[in-house]
């Protein structure tokens, strides 16, 4: 399904720190890990080889295995290979020494105590649906998967859920729904991504334009720090301002500050079924004008944009009868109570018509609405049928949305690459999808150029290089341009304070 960019990825700058010499796992001399910034580390049972690599004696891995439940530590190369990359298929992903599938907080603590003692990098991993190489494995490191940690308790009185990180987003929603409650954040990947990964990336989604993103629902966390200490932050309290906002610091930290082992989520009462509007436009500009006309006056429960290429790709995959001739389509929903939904939908229809929509369809049938929403969610896999993808996630303040979208069109023309655009338009968060042929090296280079230029454009418009997917490894080279030296320095100081030896997800967010 994935088509990794070969020979090098978009942000695959030669100096990528996780791109080190090959690891020799499982040979008779033991497992080898790179000595990155740890040349002075002295480890009992480890020796430094002539080529600058530290050789981890197999006994050390056995020591780790002995602290874990049987079968939690995996070294079978075929199994380990399945944990090297996330959905972005980072071509520079390393080969880990082992994978640990933790079953509880104590397992996570055991891994981090061992890793700290021996200077071994640890890459936390949820379900591996990330789109920025955040859980790309590191050569000689441990991939620490939380997929087996799946407990959930819903408390309808406080309207909270206490959940372990491995449960999928869709499963959290289902558990909440059994109590008449709702967990809103809904990444398009909600059926394949974990709640731990959502917290670690501060995931957004379709309904976030009205209901906010993951952090707005995280009341508390249990986090295991780099040295193996487990701390509890926040809790099932709707108001709590005691101390610094450390809970928020860990949300969105992409596995670089600690491993999330439990999340306390705020739930809200289930909303009424949504009414849906679909509008087709003869030009992209008219569709974007309609977005601004809608967001100026109301808060839709969803406001999504698809360009002609995305519509065509979804239509090829799903045969839904979408208007292939339209240059752009908007999909909007209202879940306002009672007659208010009808009024909101009518106002959105009017806004689209006044901006030049050629066809507008409205329905209060939830099943019809869900079919259109499923079409929107299917865009990434559908566009993948056209070629390999570099996925953008740039966002801008709303008034800059038209300039961003027209600028992306220009970049596509300048770089002679195809860029499909799909967007959570209501909050200015766009996903230009750069399509290329991985066997055409010239096109690979042009795609990589476009990848950088789109982020430069967003930054120039006062926007962000990532609205919801995270920086990971593929976008980290652009982070200094967005944040500036002072904020980068502050970020490094926080990282160093919490992870002084740099073992947690090295190479993600920061070089
Ligand atoms: C088809 C498709 C559609 C998508 N649509 C959206 C969307 O609409 N909105 C959106 O926000 N994202 C979207 N995504 C991206 C992705 O699903 C999210 O980023 C998701 O939050 C990742 O969750 P995961 O469990 O797969 O995490 P992973 O990919 O395994 O990890 C993501 C990051 O979190 C860290 N991490 C994971 N678990 C933990 C933990 N327990 N403790 C500490 N760090 C951890 C990893 O180290 C990594 O940096 C989409 C992806 C796909 C494939």
Which helices and strands occur, and which strands form pairs?
Blueprint: E1 31-34, E2 46-48, E3 53-56, H1 58-66, E4 73-74, H2 77-81, E5 98-101, H3 105-118, E6 122-125, E7 142-145, E8 152-155, E9 160-163, H4 169-177, E10 181-182, H5 195-201, H6 208-211, E11 218-224, E12 230-234, H7 246-250, E13 259-266, E14 268-269, E15 275-281, H8 284-297, E16 302-307, H9 308-318, E17 328-334, H10 339-354, E18 359-363, H11 366-377, H12 379-384, E19 388-391, H13 401-415, E20 418-424, E21 429-436, H14 441-460, H15 479-498
Parallel strand pairs: 5-7, 6-7
Antiparallel strand pairs: 1-3, 2-3, 4-5, 8-9, 9-13, 10-14, 11-12, 11-13, 15-17, 15-18, 16-17, 16-20, 19-21, 20-21
The chain binds flavin-adenine dinucleotide.
Flavin-adenine dinucleotide is lined by residues 86-87, 123-131, 134-135, 146, 165, 187-189, 193-194, 196-198, 200-201, 203-205, 254-255, 259-260, 380-381, 468-469, 472, 505, 508.
């Amino acid at each position: 399904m994935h088509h990794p960019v070969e020979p090098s990825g978009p942000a695959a700058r030669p100096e990528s720190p996780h791109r080190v010499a090959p690891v020799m796992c499982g040979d008779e001399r033991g497992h080898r890990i790179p000595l990155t910034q740890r040349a002075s580390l002295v480890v009992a049972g480890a020796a430094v080889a002539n080529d600058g690599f530290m050789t981890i004696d197999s006994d050390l891995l056995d020591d780790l295995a002995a602290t874990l439940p049987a079968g939690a530590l995996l070294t079978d190369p075929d199994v380990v290979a399945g944990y090297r990359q996330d959905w972005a298929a980072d071509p520079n992903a390393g080969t880990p020494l082992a994978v640990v599938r933790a079953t509880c907080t104590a397992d996570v603590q055991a891994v981090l105590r061992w890793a700290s003692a021996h200077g071994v990098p640890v890459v936390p991993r949820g379900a591996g649906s990330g789109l920025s190489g955040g859980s790309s494995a590191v050569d000689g490191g441990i991939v620490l998967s939380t997929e087996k940690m799946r407990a959930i308790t819903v408390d309808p009185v406080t309207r909270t859920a206490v959940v372990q990180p491995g449960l999928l987003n869709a499963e959290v929603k289902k558990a909440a729904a059994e109590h008449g409650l709702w967990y809103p954040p809904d990444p398009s990947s909600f059926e394949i991504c974990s709640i731990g990964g959502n917290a670690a990336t501060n995931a957004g989604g379709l309904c976030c334009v009205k209901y906010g993103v993951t952090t707005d629902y995280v009341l508390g966390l249990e986090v295991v720090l780099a040295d193996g200490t487990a701390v509890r932050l926040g809790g099932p309290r709707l108001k709590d301002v005691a101390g610094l906002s450390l809970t928020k610091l860990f949300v969105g930290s992409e596995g670089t500050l600690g491993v999330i082992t439990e999340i306390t989520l705020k739930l809200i009462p289930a909303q009424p079924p949504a009414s849906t509007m679909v509008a087709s436009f003869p030009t992209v500009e008219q569709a974007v004008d309609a977005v601004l006309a809608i967001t100026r006056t109301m808060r839709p429960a969803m406001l999504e944009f698809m360009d002609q290429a995305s519509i065509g790709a979804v239509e090829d995959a799903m045969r839904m009868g979408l208007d292939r001739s339209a240059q752009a389509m908007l999909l909007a929903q209202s879940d306002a109570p009672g007659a208010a939904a009808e009024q909101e939908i009518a106002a959105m229809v009017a806004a689209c018509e006044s901006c030049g929509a050629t066809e507008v369809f409205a329905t209060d049938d939830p099943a019809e609405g869900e079919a259109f929403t499923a079409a929107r969610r299917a865009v990434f896999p559908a566009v993948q049928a056209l070629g390999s993808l570099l996925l953008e996630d740039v966002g801008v303040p709303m008034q800059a949305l038209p300039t961003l979208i027209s600028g992306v069109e220009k970049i596509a023309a300048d770089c002679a690459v195809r860029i499909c655009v799909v967007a959570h338009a209501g909050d200015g968060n766009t996903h230009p999808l750069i399509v290329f042929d991985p066997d055409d090296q010239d096109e690979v280079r042009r795609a990589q150029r476009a990848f950088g230029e789109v982020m430069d454009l967003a930054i120039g418009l006062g926007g962000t290089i990532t609205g919801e997917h995270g920086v990971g490894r593929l976008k980290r080279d652009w982070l200094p341009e967005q944040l500036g030296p002072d904020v980068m320095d502050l970020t490094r100081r926080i990282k160093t304070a919490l992870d002084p030896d740099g073992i947690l997800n090295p190479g993600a967010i920061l070089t």
